[in-house]
Amino acid sequence: MPTRFLSPIYTHDPISAFIEVLALVLLLRTPIKLNMAFPCSNTRPLFLALLSLIFLSTLAHSASPPTNTTTPVPATTVCRGTQDPGYCSAVLQTDNRTATVYEYGRFCFKKSISQATKLLNLVSKYLSQAHKLGLTPSAVGALQDCSLLAQLNIDFFTTTFATVNSAAKSLPVMTAEDVQTLLSGVLTNSQTCLDGLKSTESTWSVRKGLVSPWTNDTKLYSVALSLFTKAWAPKKLKTNAKSTHHRSAFGDGRVPGFNLSDRARAVLESTGRRLLQSTGGDAEGVMISDLVTVSQDGSGNFTLINDAVAAAPNNTNGSDGYFLIYVTAGVYEEYVRIDKKKKYVMMIGDGINQTIITGNRNVVDNYTTFNSATLAVVGTGFVGINITIRNTAGAVKHQAVALRNGADLSTFYSCSFEGYQDTLYVHSLRQFYRECDIYGTVDFIFGNAAVVFQNCNLYPRLPMANQFNAITAQGRTDPNQNTGISIENCTIRAADDLANSNTNIQTFLGRPWKQYSRTVYMQSFMSDVVDPAGWRDWNGTFALDTLYYGEYNNTGPGSDTTKRVTWPGYHIMNVTEATNYTTSNFIFGDEWLPQTGVAYFTGLL
């Protein structure tokens, strides 16, 4: 046992490390004779203390699962703790050989790329035979969604595999966060496809041919995420709970202090508009590489937003700044798409209710929820400012999305999202919303991004008869996903139609769309529109013990927690728990928000 102190101190086991260091210090500083007769009276207590520390260290190690990632182990061992150990073992145990966690992980990544490619080919096959198979428009729409999502999964796995393939130790924190974000997105993409296939009126041949393999491959992706967290993800270090405020570069619909390229400045000046205002401050770091204008009167470069998007360069990395699309006041009846190649696009309007993008697609009219969005964003680094995005389908059309956002490192500032059911689809990856207005009824903020809302206004509207309002419906399906909804310093008030109604409508903070749903409200104002129970179940006891719903230091008549639900997954959070969901800790905003010029605070207020 004494030789235990000569072993390395494992940084992934801080409790054991502390115990071992303390025992080692005592041992080195004290001349102890290991004589069981204990002739010196003051030696006996110290020796017993040392034995106690050794015992505690042994317990600390034995109480945790094997963590030596470089030692070959059977597949059954590495699969412990995954969502489906039996499936995991069947996938990894191709023969009787053992392997390290890293080797199993790389094998799983490569197999996932192969399977995602096969699924894409299968979807393409069905799409090419859509007319022959007599597929409905909703079935075709679901297949088209699956095609896009499968392509994204291939991209995400290819990127993450390149990172982990040569790494045989824990990755740097931000690199690991990037990988975990993309793997979380893979699972979200797969679940979105499955949900779409199951909800359409597709023929049995399609459902039989796609749902089963897609379900199995979703399990495979879960194994990949689990093995990544075991092998490559380091322990995250939280920043201080005390908040630092970063000033905004934007105000009054203007863009102050931008660093414009010569061409961008020339284009801007040719419009004759006063878009610039020099104020310095944080705005000096916001770079614009190029600029185009959209105006319905023909005075700009384009009259349609989608044409301006098409003019943006493909696959930029943001180092030269944003491609700025300035959209002048007007009502634009377009379904705008920012695809995966259009990265680091910044779109600025003339203000809420001045620059309006509007549409009315919905599920009743045979669109999928995923493709009903008026504005859909996938390109990394998108920033939207001073724009209203609407879906005018109305409550009777059920799911009808205004914005669908699946863009990593995306930001919306001073925007309004207006709809009824499923207004704002925070689909996946890392997102931030500041000083935005969000209107809706049922599940009007939903999805599985890692997203923070700061200083936003949430306006429940009047739903249809016999409906209730749910502000959020978070869709986390796996405990290793780094996703959830954090609502900080926001205000919840009834929209005018609900406030002026004589009907008794219940409004809840959220309900669990998926098994590991995660949503927190922190330091926000809740009016009496919020039901005293706070939260609503999805279907009986589903997810009540696996969800994480939290409230911290909220105010207003709706914030009273004395009559809240008593589910195992509901928490009245303390400051330590709340700190996990700040902008700095939850979405690592300090690493990417400053370049946007958007104001934010880092921690708790």
In words, what does this structure look like?
- It is an enzyme of class 3 (hydrolase).
- Keywords: Aspartyl esterase, Cell wall biogenesis/degradation, Disulfide bond, Glycoprotein, Hydrolase, Secreted, Signal.
- InterPro entries: Invertase/methylesterase_inhib, Pectin_lyas_fold, Pectin_lyase_fold/virulence, Pectinesterase_Asp_AS, Pectinesterase_cat, Pectinesterase_inhib_dom.
- This is Pectinesterase.
- The chain is 32% helix and 19% strand.
- The chain folds into 3 domains: 2-62; 75-231, Invertase/pectin methylesterase inhibitor family protein (Butyryl-CoA Dehydrogenase, subunit A, domain 3); 245-601, 3 Solenoid (Pectate Lyase C-like).
- It is of the alpha/beta class and 605 residues long.
- The chain has a 12-stranded parallel sheet. An 8-stranded parallel sheet has the order 7-10-13-16-19-22-25-28, with no helix packed on it.
- It contains 14 helices and 31 strands.
- Helix 1 (14-29) packs antiparallel against helix 2 (43-62), helix 5 packs antiparallel against helix 9 and helix 7 (137-164) packs antiparallel against helix 8.
- Residues 1-67, 252-256 and 276-283 have low confidence and may be disordered.
- The protein is globular and about 70 Å long.
